[in-house]
Structures are given as C-alpha cells and as structure tokens.
Design a protein that fits this description.
This protein has 100 residues and is of the alpha+beta class. The chain has a single domain, classed as Dimeric alpha+beta barrel (Alpha-Beta Plaits), CATH 3.30.70.1060. It is built from 3 helices and 4 strands; from the N terminus they run E-H-E-E-H-E-H.
Amino acid sequence: MPTFVMLTRVEPEVLRNAQSLEQLEHRAVESIQKQCPSVKWISNYAVLGPYDYMDVFEAPDNDTAAKVSTLVRVSGHAHSEIWPATEWAKFKKMIHAMPS
C-alpha cells in the first residue's frame, strides 16, 4: 500500500487546555477507523515548527488519504497536508533503474 505523511496544525481557538488535544485526537481517530478501515497507521509524532503533529500511514489510494485528511480537518478542527512518500531504499532502486 502507498505511504503518506500527514502534517497537522490544530487551530488555536479550539484548544481550551492541554487535555483538549487528546479529546480532538480521540474524535479524529475514531472517525478515521470507522470510515477508513483499510488505513494502517505507521507512526505519530508531536513536532516543533509550523505543525503540531506528523502522522505516517498507509492507504490503498490517494482518495482514501484525502478522506483521512478531511476527517482530521472536520473532527480535529485542524489544517492538514498530505504528502505521498516513498521509502528511501525503494526510491534508490527506482533511480538506479533509470537510464543514464
């Protein structure tokens, strides 16, 4: 299955306290599990910078990845970006197979 990286920034006006982050996460995860059961989560990180979180997941196609992003935006009150990703070893195989 293709791999995707999702960067998420929570909208500050929805945060009442630190625990509200966990509540937003719970709602988003529940919604994704229900509506996109084929999605496989690889890893999740809290990050410093313009985004709050980075998630890595596998989805069967771009449409499913877009649905994940939309569910995060709606249930998590957040801005998110989805980037398709290729494992480095697989990328190197691809470039070595290209003509010189």
